[in-house]
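The freezer alarm interrupted the setup, so I double-checked each line after restarting. Inputs confirmed:
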Amino acid sequence: FKVPDEISLLVIVVDVNPIWWGQQAQREQEFTLSKCLDAVMVMGNSHMAMSRTNKLAVIASHCQDSHFLYPSKSWKAGDDGADDASSSGDGKYELLSVANNLIAEEIRNVMSKTEVRGNSTDTLLAGTLAKALCLGQEIKSRILVIKAAEDCALQYMNFMNVIFAAQKQNILIDACVLDSNSGLLQQACDITGGLYLKIPQQVALAQYLLWVFLPDSEQRSQLVLPPPAHVDYRAACFCHRNLIEIGYVCSVCLSIFCNFSPICTTCETAFKIQLPQMVKPKKKKLKQTT
Amino acid sequence: MKLRVQLQCKNLHEYLRELSPEILDRLYNHPATCLAVYRELPSLAKNYVMRMLFLDQPLPQAAVALWVKKDSQKDHDECVSVLGGLRLWHSQQLQGGLQGYILNPVFKDNLRTALLGGGTAWAEEGSTLGPDRHARDIESLDRYAMERWEVILQFMVGSPSAVSQDLAHLLVQAGLMKSEAGEAPYITSAGFQFLLLDTASQLWYFTLQYLKTAQSRGMDLVEILSFLFQLSFSTLGRRKSRRYYPTRLAITLAAGVTTSSSTTSSNLASTPATVEAGFIVVETNYRIYAYTNSELQIALVALFSEMLYRFPNVVVAQLTRESVQQAIANGITAQQIIHFLRTRAHPVMLAQTPVLPSTITDQIRLWELERDRLQFTEGVLYNQFLSQADFEVLRDRAQGLDCLVWQDVAHRVMVVTPQGHSEVKRFWKRQRSHT
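Predicted 3D structure, all chains:
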């Protein structure tokens, strides 16, 4: 007796930081943002082809905000107007071609319309992940993050909150890192039970996605997959957002500081310090020599 | 005593394995078929196929065997046999002399097309047709589909309903009904079992029978199957060229036989097989309450229970020994009755575990076993031996031939199987001529 198919949601979060991708275009012309999105679409199509009840969502994470590439708000299911556009003349499964066209259109909108403020290569990953978590409320879901730019220590707090929320909801977070290792994502994968992989060759992104990240959690228990990497568990201090190994912890709210301060900035508890008392040196009794 | 014929409900894969290789290859020439077959694979096999989909060279078998962890070796072997049986991959010699696996190229190309495009359209697009004036919404489609299906089922139960000659003929050929010369067809025991299955299984069984007859009628099996699979991938209610609307029943057809029809957590729009929610409540005092108006469902419940009361929206019935045993005499098994009750269980019942009270399920099975107290075996009786020694000699001989069924030493009586009878008789004749 086969278990009825459960709905399984895959959320793909793509880092579309334009500054990093712009620099990337100069570094290596073989692998551009559109090639990356092609690979993402192959992954999404394969996920939806696996089972009738699989669902997909794609979110693009930009510098200051995030956008849903699929499903997008302007698309209503069963819309007759979309019918003509969707019937694909090239043999692709109709559902997939609808999805792919939408993704292509939305990413064009996002990249051309979103303003870029500042010069930083940060991406607002924590916020995007929070949106992804909201999607997978009552259904079995997992998140795949494709990370391009580096970590931003400013997001440490929000990121950790998102990770613990995902752990509570039994949502796996997988990470596929294109360039530099990300300690935050390593922690996320370790805590939620997902896979972390830094890809040796960027052009082979699609193949890595299909081989490593396509199987869901039940199938992963049967397959041999890359082992977990060494995780950098250092916390970031609340005052400077530096990663520290030893620090001061407030006993009330458990926030971490690198330097001592008499009042905790998070919960505003005042700490009374006792100065070390002067210890009178004890007179040593001399042994009486007989 | 009538032997009970078990209704075999094969699923897609078993059916495909029986087809000849040429037909299979032609079948795989269509992306829809490849996708349908792919979806029915066990999940590990799906991953295997995905991994090999974009490779053009064979992979060494040893490498593939390393993909699974050691505990899952059994699953790996199962996948290998499934993929081989469906001719999705075959062995090929690599350059180093090792054996490798490579995907069936026709299958590979068409699955790639289904995923990525780049091939020809699945069906002729009727883009010249204007916007649809007769757009049907999902609900009316569902109702239409269920109505038509119920007409067929009612015809089987015996209530008067108009069914085409073709269909009646198909039912007879499927073994679900029998027709005497000149009289209307009546239902067989296999037909009873068919009625108690859930809708998806019924549909699938029916389609398989149709496909079998299609071959004999000269229609192209490949075309029919491709059409079916294509239909199953269309979205519910969408118009297609030439304006036919896939109904939910058609879509769930290729989704296989064993989707449970009692998933009532239907907050999300596109839910699985069943169209009707559960409506049967079974109590521990053997009463059945069926909240339905449908004649067909009432007739089905009446097959194995005694009707007590009938109200505008409820029917009250009682499970009694006589009613269940009569159903069993008609060829229905206890398992099918239990399956029927379970698949149509009311949401209130579904909330409790086990869904049906265990007293009821146990008792139905016990009633079935009551009829099985006697087991009939054919044999030949040997008695009236003149002496104990004669009896023992013959008995040992029969035991040596392994055809002794039963013996009674005190009365010098023994029973031998019919097959062994001739041999034993010959031996006895020789024995007697000696003494």
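Quick read of the result. The interface with chain B takes residues 1-5, 7, 42, 45-46, 49-53, 77-78, 80, 83-84, 87-97, 138-139, 206-207, 210-211, 214-216, 218-219, 221-224 of chain A (CB under 8 Å).
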